[in-house]
Amino acid sequence: MTINQAWCVAATIAADLLCWLRLLCLDRSLADAEPKTLRYRILHTAVRLVRGQHKRKIKIPETWPWARELQAVFQAAFALTAPT
């Protein structure tokens, strides 16, 4: 596999993951958003994993402008069942 083929495969996988994220985890406002908006609001957001009583939680700063949207995305992702 050449470098160009590897980049094409990586770009295709990234596009597929973004489509699945939209389909399974995003509400209407973000599901219809442009890729640039998704990168800015979701993919570039730093969060902290916090250990709590026997499970890890995501801690999102309350001052973040899209804190509620981001929390809903993570809750939807964690609620997905494993494929069988």
Please, could you describe this protein's structure?
It is built from 4 helices and 2 strands. Strand 1 (48-52) and strand 2 form a beta hairpin. The longest helix is centred in the N-terminal third of the chain and has 23 residues, at 3-25. With 84 residues, it is mainly alpha-helical. The chain has one domain (3-79). A two-stranded antiparallel sheet has the order 1-2. The protein starts with a helix and ends in a 5-residue tail after the last helix.
Task: Tell me the domain tally.
Answer: 1
Number of helices: 4
Strand content: 5-15%
Which regions are unreliable across 5 or more consecutive residues at pLDDT < 50?
Answer: none
Please compute the radius of gyration using only Cα atoms.
15 Å
Order of helices and strands: HHHEEH
How many angstroms separate the termini? Answer: 31 Å
Give the class from helix and strand content and strand pairing. Answer: mainly alpha
**Number of E-state strands:** 2
